[in-house]
Specification:
The protein is mostly beta strands. 0% of the residues lie in helices and 40% in strands. The N and C termini lie far apart (33 Å).
């Protein structure tokens, strides 16, 4: 990994980060309230941005990685990112109780899904798992938006989803 953060309220802004040859993600976030703002992240072996705590990823270009953004906890915001040409999924949320806001992103030409909410079954009556609004999702090998749990309470509005494949766990 190039940047590992165990601190709270860390901001990385306006950087060009290339992680050739490393085995971990370019950003490996363990502290809460990490903000990745307006960076260009390329060629990370295990994914460009990986977060086990709260992540705000805004205005980043992410390309050439295994996966774009991978999160495993709640309360994330991904806005106005351009994630393209990664070999896996553009965005993956594996949290047991996901809570993610994904809006105004361009997710293109990824080897997996555009958005993969692959958490386990979400309890009926749970709070909103995902808010997916005004994204452009195209040319991905997998589906545009996939859910492991078809009952996940989500708000999906005003997305342009075109020319994606059918591989994956969702529709």
């Amino acid at each position: 990994s190039v940047i590992v953060s165990a601190q709270f309220n860390t901001v990385v802004q306006g950087c060009g980060i290339k992680d050739d040859g490393a085995t971990g993600p370019a950003f490996n976030i363990t502290g809460t309230n990490f903000q990745a703002l307006y960076n260009k992240v390329t060629k990370a072996a295990a994914g460009c941005i990986s977060a086990a705590q709260t992540l705000f990823a805004i205005g980043n270009e992410i390309t050439g990685c295994t996966n774009g953004i991978v999160v495993s906890s709640t309360q994330h915001t991904f806005r106005a990112n351009y994630i393209h040409d990664v070999s896996g999924d553009c965005i993956i949320d594996t949290a047991a109780t996901p809570s993610v806001d994904i809006s105004f992103n361009i997710l293109a030409k990824c080897g997996g899904m555009g958005i993969d909410i692959s958490s386990a079954a979400i309890s009926p009556g749970a709070t909103q798992a995902a808010r997916i609004v005004s994204n452009t999702i195209y040319g991905n090998t997998g589906v545009g938006i996939g859910f492991a749990d078809a009952d996940a309470p989500c708000d999906i509005e005003n997305n342009l989803i075109q020319d994606n494949g059918t591989a994956g766990n969702g529709n």
